[in-house]
Specification:
The protein is of the alpha+beta class. 16% of the residues lie in helices and 27% in strands. The protein binds ligand MTE. The site of ligand MTE has 21 residues, from strand 5.
Length: 475
């Protein structure tokens, strides 16, 4: 891949559409679903990462080859029918028959036509499905909220559907003087307290972790899908600590402990708790948390990597030093180029990705497209997103869809007229602190290539003349 450095200044944009573009031209084949056959999954099965990479790339190539034939067919489909379009001229079955009764689905489900939009596990990434990841299908989502059933999952010891009447949250001190009145809360105790609701993203620190050294996976679901955003409802942890008489001057850290079998414990600095942002949450998008996401209670730590958002939360301990738990001393640490590890780097820095067009999709014809993506920062609100279609030589400022909230996903869009020539699509986000998302070259100069966590480099999608979109890296 050519080594281009995205240094260009962005051109401010005022036009709503690309001048001269026909808004009905330009059609896109959405990311292929199920691009691995059962045989290919079998090949990569035993957790061998190199196998996985090779298989993903082969699968992406195979899909590209397969869709090339489909391209002609799709183009033919689009040719105008001289007799008119029967779907608008003739009676439809759905317009001339009785529909389903109310409450046919007491809990509503997506349309059967949307069954390809699902979270996906990456076969071979982990040895055991109960200690694994499923990725959110970012390529198919709109706006900023992740439907709860498509929220990514990361479990270290499987998920549990805990009986809320038996769930307890204990608050205590590592020394008696840190918490005057240690308490055990039931769900009922917590849910009677005045609630707050806020929208925040959660990103696993390992998101984009497979791409540190090179291109590894073909679609945005796998490169960036350990990312989701919800409206969370709960009680500020600070309020609960105050009820328990916690000494918030002497306290320096808290330890959050999960109720599953993974012994998930994380240290959180007390300043984050004092800010009022850290929440003991039971609500997600207007209903109770899903079991996979920590039902009935999880910690919400806005801006901080997902591992600190302890699920099935059962205990908070107030203390005066970091706990060096296994998931912060040995795991979730940053391998630096000199071989040393960095611990407690928990903030998710400013990052963005174009979700459409994105890897595995195909532009079926030239013409008008809306480039659309997501930007976020663990340090506050997104200030601006620039988009390049030439690999970072020229940049144009994208439109930010409202709302633009702190530590929340922000949707950006940019109209684009594809002229049918190869293109390199990139987005570069800047947050309210002035932090600008780095290019791969800049990030690797500081962090090397062998880390797993906190990869926030600029993503590049290469659009080939065939319209195929592939994952590439530009330094
Ligand atoms: N909490 C417990 N108790 N057990 C876990 O395995 N996984 C952590 C965190 N909290 C985990 C947990 C990790 S690594 C991440 S990225 C997030 O939960 C994922 O949250 P989600 O599954 O709701 O997306």
């Amino acid at each position: 891949m050519s080594k281009l450095r995205p240094t260009g200044e962005a051109t401010p944009r005022t036009d709503p559409l690309v001048p001269g573009a026909d808004a009905l031209s330009g059609r896109l084949r959405r990311a292929p679903e199920n691009f691995l056959t059962p045989e290919e999954i079998g090949q990569v099965g035993k957790g061998r990462r190199d196998f996985l990479r090779a298989s993903f790339l082969a699968a992406a190539g195979a899909t590209a080859a397969a869709t090339l034939g489909g391209r002609t067919a799709a183009a033919a489909d689009a040719a105008p029918n001289p007799a008119g379009d029967p779907d608008i001229l003739k009676p439809t079955p759905w317009g001339s028959s009785l529909g389903q009764p109310v409450a046919a689905n007491p809990y509503g489900l997506p349309s059967k036509h949307e069954r390809g939009l699902v979270r996906r596990q990456s076969p071979g990434l982990t040895q055991v499905p109960a200690a694994s990841v499923s990725f959110a299908p970012l390529q198919g989502l709109f706006g900023i909220i992740t439907p709860s059933g498509l929220h990514f999952e990361r479990h270290h010891q499987g998920w549990q559907d805990i009986d809320p009447t038996r769930h307890r949250l204990m608050i205590n001190g590592s020394r008696p003087e840190f918490v005057k009145t240690p308490r055990v809360y039931t769900m009922d105790d917590i849910m009677r307290l005045p609630p707050v609701s806020r929208m925040h993203f959660i990103e696993c620190g390992a998101n984009t972790g497979m791409e540190w050294g090179n291109v590894a996976v073909p679609t945005v679901q796998y490169t960036h899908g350990m990312l989701s955003c919800s409206e969370f409802t709960g009680v500020p942890l600070r309020t609960l600590l105050e009820y328990c008489g916690a000494d918030l001057k002497a306290a320096k850290f808290i330890l959050a402990e999960g109720g599953d079998g993974s012994s998930m414990t994380r240290t959180i600095p007390i300043e984050l708790v004092m800010s009022g942002e850290v929440m003991v949450a039971y609500g997600q998008n207007g209903e109770m948390l899903r079991p996979e996401n920590g039902y009935p209670l999880r910690l919400v730590v806005p801006g901080v990597q997902g591992v600190s958002w302890v699920k099935w939360l059962r205990r908070i301990e107030v203390g005066d030093r970091p706990y060096a738990a296994k998931d912060e001393a040995v795991h979730y640490i940053d391998l630096m180029p000199d071989g040393q590890h960095r611990q407690y780097t928990s903030i998710q820095e400013c990052k963005s990705v174009i979700t459409s067009p994105s890897g595995g999709q195909q532009l079926l014809d030239k013409g008008f497209f809306t480039i659309s993506g997501l930007a976020w920062s663990g340090r506050g609100a997104i200030k601006r997103v620039d988009v390049s279609v030439d690999g970072g030589i020229n940049w144009t400022e994208a439109t930010l869809q409202t709302p633009v909230l702190s530590k929340c996903l922000t949707r950006f869009t940019l109209p684009w007229n594809w002229d049918g020539r190869p293109a390199l699509l990139q987005s570069r986000a800047m947050d309210e602190t002035g932090f600008v998302q780095p290019a791969y070259g800049q990030l690797r100069a500081v962090r090397g290539t062998r880390s797993i966590y906190h990869n926030n480099a600029i993503q590049t999608w290469q659009v080939a003349e065939s319209g195929d979109v592939n994952n590439v890296q530009i330094l």
